[in-house]
Design brief:
about 20% strand, UDP-N-acetylmuramoyl-L-alanine:D-glutamate ligase, eleven-stranded mixed beta sheet, six-stranded mixed beta sheet, 3 domains, single chain, Udp-n-acetylmuramoylalanyl-d-glutamate--2,6- Diaminopimelate Ligase, Chain: A, domain 1, alpha/beta, Protein-Tyrosine Phosphatase, Chain A
Length: about 475
């Protein structure tokens, strides 16, 4: 592709140098540039890419896309100026990679909780039907069964379009993507064309970045505002923000609810830790998921399949074969009859929902233990709230480390304990070492009790003092239970 072909639909404010040059790639990281690269100098949250223009040129970059023309220009390097490079990098990336979101049907899932379960289950169902598909998620990215590690929920625009381009090149008909609020706010999905979008729910999260809940909500809403007229939008009307999300969208709107009065609705007929019998739009199905929050996830999945054109009966048959996603309400049973639930719940609302589910199924026949913590260098305001939710719905609580990152683990624990009253403190202990905290709960719980190990779910690491260490809640639980 030539530079002129790359920018022909996006008129720059200024160009110095030739646009009749072949380009081999587009990069945000100057270290990844090579001979013939386009380097986009973008204002980031941590650094300003304009400071690395010289380094990019030194690595071989043939073109610099920037917001202001450098004083010292290098001969044989083309400079292209746009008012805002954050706005333009997505469209440039999708052009370079052959507009992959127009070569397949891209479905985005956004909300505080449930994104991974919905996106991953949709991906698994479609592939089980023999259709090639891709997945972009918090846990891992997949191109028709081949795994590609991920570092964040939604990658930067160039990485994202490169991934989507590979999916399209491999013949994927569908791609399912978790869309984070950061991705919308930072224009990571700019230039993409979505065939459908799903809203799960909205509770307090990422306020360290968004500052206010309204900003967080509006970032999510921005995703639906950008949908084209021929797309569909599925929203959860059990959440008070559900209809706010879709009030300005041009897409066809469908709703789901467990309270009724929606296009897709369900009620629980029977439930246990093995799964639930559900009535979905008058049809009965058994699913291997547990909890009201998962009923909403199931409805979002079912609604998406229906809007994608799949038959109702076939959609339910496929749903009945699905298992919970790694780290999302996964259950383990010890030889002594103690149940452990591993869940990614890392917000007050997610913790509340998971504990409510455990207590509904327990029905007072055993005690509920909760092992949880909170991440370092993140929203401190949710720490006491998480401790409160744990204490309100548990018989015993162990506050421990999650990912302390650069903070002192004990300081995070103290922030959580500060949210507890005398009654809450009576049932709570703190153990800084997460392994010992989990082992202690497994050792002290009795037959019929349930232990919730919350916060890390699928993650197989801990970050302590900025260093990444291997740590997997699954391994610790299985070892404590003596399971093979």
């Amino acid at each position: 592709m030539t530079l002129s072909e790359l920018i022909q639909h996006y008129k720059p404010a200024q160009v110095v140098g030739s646009t009749d040059i072949e380009i081999c790639g587009i990069e945000l990281d100057s270290r990844k540039c090579c001979r013939g690269s386009v380097f986009v100098a973008m204002q980031g949250t941590q650094t300003d890419g304009h400071e690395y223009i010289d380094k990019a040129i030194g690595m071989g970059a043939a073109c610099i896309v920037c917001e202001s023309m450098p004083e010292n220009k290098v001969p044989d390097v083309t400079y292209v100026v746009y008012k805002n490079t954050t706005d333009i990098v997505g469209p440039l990336a999708t052009t370079f990679y052959g507009e992959p979101s127009k070569r397949m049907k891209l479905i985005g899932i956004t909300g505080t909780n449930g994104k991974t379960t919905i996106a991953t289950t949709l991906y698994n169902i479609v592939r089980r039907m023999g259709i090639k598909a891709g997945l972009c998620s918090t846990v891992c990215n997949y191109i028709d069964g081949e795994a590609y590690p991920t570092e964040c929920t939604t990658p930067d625009p160039i990485t994202l379009n490169r991934l989507l381009g590979s999916m399209a090149d491999h013949g994927c008909e569908y791609a399912f993507m978790e869309v984070s609020s950061h991705a919308v706010d930072q224009k990571r999905i700019a230039g993409l064309t979505f065939a459908g979008a799903v809203f799960t729910n909205l509770t307090r999260d990422h306020l360290d970045y968004h500052k206010t809940f309204d900003n967080y909500r509006d970032a999510k809403k921005g995703f639906f505002d950008m949908l084209p007229k021929d797309a569909f939008a599925i929203t959860n009307t059990d959440d008070k923000n559900g209809l706010i999300m879709t009030q300005n969208t041009k897409a066809t709107v469908r709703t789901y609810s467990i309270r009724g009065g929606a296009d897709f609705h369900a009620k629980i007929l029977e439930e246990s830790f093995e799964g639930m019998n559900l009535d979905i739009n008058g049809l009965e199905v058994f699913v291997q998921f547990v909890g009201r929050f998962n009923v909403q996830n199931i409805l979002a999945i079912y609604g998406t399949l229906r809007m994608m054109g799949f038959d109702a009966q076939e959609s339910l048959i496929q749903l009945s074969a699905m298992k919970p996603v790694n780290g999302r309400f996964e259950t383990f049973r010890s030889h002594e009859g103690v149940t452990a639930v591993i869940d990614y719940a890392h917000t007050p609302d997610a913790l509340k929902n998971v504990l409510a589910t455990i207590n509904e199924v327990l029905a007072g026949k055993g005690q509920c233990w909760t092992v949880c913590g909170a991440g370092g260098n993140r929203d401190k305001g949710k720490r006491p709230l998480m401790a409160q939710e744990a204490a309100n719905q548990s018989d015993r609580v162990i506050i421990t480390s999650d990912n302390p990152r650069d903070e002192e683990p004990q300081d995070i624990i103290n922030d959580m304990l500060a949210g507890l009253d005398k009654e809450g403190l009576k049932k709570t202990i703190s153990i800084v070492d997460r392994r010992e905290a989990i082992r202690t709960a497994c050792m002290m719980a009795k037959k019929g009790d349930v232990i919730l190990v919350a916060g890390k779910g699928h993650e197989d690491y801990q970050i302590i003092k900025g260093v990444k260490h291997h740590f997997d809640d699954h391994e610790v639980v299985r070892e404590a239970f003596g399971l093979d």
